[in-house]
Hints:
By secondary structure, chain A is of the alpha/beta class. Chain A has helices spanning 18-29, 44-51, 94-103, 133-136, 139-151; strands at residues 3-8, 35-40, 56-64, 73-77, 112-120.
Amino acid sequence: MKTIVLGVGNQILGDDGVGIHVVNELKKQIKDPNITLDNAVTGGMNLLELLLGYDKAIIIDAVKTNDGKSGDVKRIPLSNFSTMHSCNPHDVSLIEAIEIAKKMGEDKIPKEIIVIGILMKEIPCEFGEKLSEKISSAVPKAIDMTLKEINNKIKNST
Amino acid sequence: MKTITIDPITRLEGHGKINIFLNGQGDVENAYLQIPELRGFERFAQGRRAEDMPQITSRICGVCPVAHHFAATKALDAAFNVDPPSAAKKLRELMYSGYYIYDHILHFYFLGGPDFVVGPDAPAAKRNVLGVIEKAGVEIGKEVIKHRAYGQKITAILGGKATHPVCGLPGGVSKGLNKDEVKEIETMTKSCIDFAKFSLQLFNDIVLKNKDYVDLILSDPYQLKTYNMGLVDKNNKVNFYDGKIRVTDQQGKEKVKFDVKDYTKYVAEHVEEWTYIKFPYLKSVGWKGFKDGKDSGIYRVGPLGRLNAAEGMATPLADKEYKKMFETLGGKAVNSTLAFHWARLIELLYATERAMELIKDPEITSTKIRNPVGEPGEGIGVTEAARGTLIHHYKLDKKGLIDKANLIVATTNNSGAINMSIRDAAIGIIKKGKVNDGLLNMVEMAFRAYDPCFACATHTLPGGMPLEVNIYDHNKKLYKKLRQNL
């Protein structure tokens, strides 16, 4: 089974880049040729293109929430999102991109797409490379959850 | 007073918000678009190595990395007092054409186009790219996806990686092209020219042959008689990568033409207390509030701004389409906001034709692609981002580190006009407090045409409706809430 682990976000917008921090740590721990680790500052169609050809995709990303607690980490199947996008107001969402690709007969879409979401109340709008204390302390948990997710068998299709 | 809030804006994601204020009669009194802007760039940039700026700024936006990359690179050319070799300029412009190809295809078919191709009154659930594919056919859908990807591929071949180009260096580029790459780009470009022609034909058949649409384009609420701004070459033809900044008036006559290094002599910025976004205006005319006409310094950039600010396109097929647009819409200047979509397709055709000229140029495989840099100083760089004129301004210290940095992005250049377009569309469409989904979409169409850039990511957990309308009574108490699923 081929798996891609993708950190999504913007490294120069503080906490928004947390997914990339997580993947950079994972790169030190994972040396399995069946597991690809990469980062992306993009969304929608471009993001989908990066996922094509893998059986499973794990996206690690900052997730804005009104209800949850900042710094919590949640495992969220992609199908639970009504909208999802990153750094990219001009593109379609990943969910829309998948719908379009399916309609076009694309057969390389991963069977399972899981988001490991690091919750936060606000996505920063201020330039900076450092994570806040709260979000920084969520990184080990996100790493653990991702490692666990890599070993999970695919349960249901996206 | 009633307040109508549209939040968040559909399709144009990010947490933009439109507030429409109604008077006691339920008619529109005023309207404002509030969009978040990234803050703290100057402080962030200070003390960094200047040559890192093209990489850093390309991360500001996931869609326009190429525009920021080269605005920064050109600012560094100026700051290090170096003129790149001609082959390097051509490679940069070729890459830039690839960026326009994917960006304009994305906007027309995915974002702005659905309003026209599916129809402004179509149910919201159909007014998206899937609705376009349904109407035009799955085969067309495949062509859209394919050619968008070609544009990406062209930028990736030249830039190293499509999403974060690494090729731009002060004085040139780091990577040239080999013969295989030239062949690959040429094949893709040929196909893109045909697809651009097809797209204009589609626009012609679906939009221009429908009198209702043409009337809509020409209708009062969508007219805005501002000045127009864009880069032009020495023949006053549109150029995306380089040239002088030309400003024309409401009749298409040249108001001023200048080098970007002098932009502070011609452009000033107005500040309003309700938003971080600044409102640039022409200094010589002055800021007169949110008004159009020759006495107001507000100007427009982007596809329509560029076509109005020029005297034609530098390639034959696009120039023909350019003339057709101005003939059809009543001569210069075209002041209809909805004509941005048409202008965007004409620019798509130009980008493909220009890419072909460049890839066929024997110099494109030259290995002389960088000149040595001089002493660090101050530099200003300009490019035409897909959404309009983009300026990077850096001041370097003696060690080549950033001392001061400032960016003027396309959406900022358009911010005055966008607010007016929303207000005018709302005035024309919302009467006596009567609001429904179709009407609201007409208001959204007014600003979607500009394809404004909303800063930073927005990640939303499940639930939450993409469109929410809140109507408040005189006491600002919520009496009606409209929601729609998109």
